[in-house]
Amino acid sequence: MTIAEVVPSLLSGLDVPGADNTLGLPAARRVVLLLVDGLGHELLRSHAEHAPFLSSMAGREISAGFPSSTATSLASIGTGLLSGEHGIVGYTFEVGDEVLNSLTWSRADDRHHDLRKALVPEVVQPHPTLFERAAAAGVAVSVVAPLFHRGSGLTRAVLRGSWFRGAAGFGDLALGALAAVREDRSFCYAYHADLDTIGHIYGPGSEEWLLQLEFIDALVSRIAARMPADSVLAVTADHGMITAGERIDFDTEPLLWQGVRVIAGEPRVRYLHTESAEVLDVWREYLGDRADVLTREDAVDAGWFGPISPLAADRIGDVVVAMKGSAVIVRSQAEPMWTGMKGFHGSRTRAELAIPILFHSVPSV
């Protein structure tokens, strides 16, 4: 059971053709789906006392899919597909002659270089979204997300087909989501990012992170208390998070450069586009049991990306490096922002892959 099945399962109760309730979620005519960035299943279970309302909700564990990265998971939410089909294969990946930062839709090495014209979002991710399908079936579909997400490349690529309402904080996110489901057959996807940000900066489980979790628990309880009749509030996440241990710096290790034309991805999962077949053996020997280092073909055959399409295959890279344990591969010169962070995600450990799908139902009058 994966994140790609969340929205179809919820839309099935809204009579959207082709939407199957494979997760067995309750049917309702008004649906709010809140995605809390970074709310891993293992983290929530370990810190249940800081989130009593969330911990009391019915639900189950599902998988974020690989890579366990925000843009990839949001694409799965929006399309109902895994990364091997929708093609948003990570935080950064090569598309043609560019390395795209999929969150900012800019060049990976220059956030000010907007790529929305050169890499048209609707072409980079061409599959129809579930929101488009729901709207075509007569469902009132809304997205409530941070103000700067309006018209962004990622929003256009994976959330198109919805009415967008910008949120500046907890208050207008909650009220915006509730306003969006006043009418019959309505669906609202709401997104909150701050738990992930706090986790990256201070580490998951830190005092700062735990207090943020308490705030989110209060937010969810307040939304639930105001949900209208015949509705369901569902809560999920895009990935979990680990605290970094050993840091391997690609930029200061010449051995790792040899034969690598492009390195993409993020510190917990790297894609290597190579000019030499020796790269695989060099990286395997250097990283040892700190990573799974596979050819693209072997990673695909192992099912890491789900069903694979030509669209995605070219973006994955010739070699896939999935870090194990708590080690990360940073780039102190090319990606200084990541170097000092404490929390990371993207790889295949249970702490990163396992996410919750929780729900609170309000019966019809």
From TrEMBL:
Q: Name one GO molecular function term.
A: hydrolase activity
Q: What is the name listed in the Swiss-Prot or TrEMBL entry for this protein?
A: Type I phosphodiesterase / nucleotide pyrophosphatase
Which organism is this entry from? Answer: Lentzea flaviverrucosa
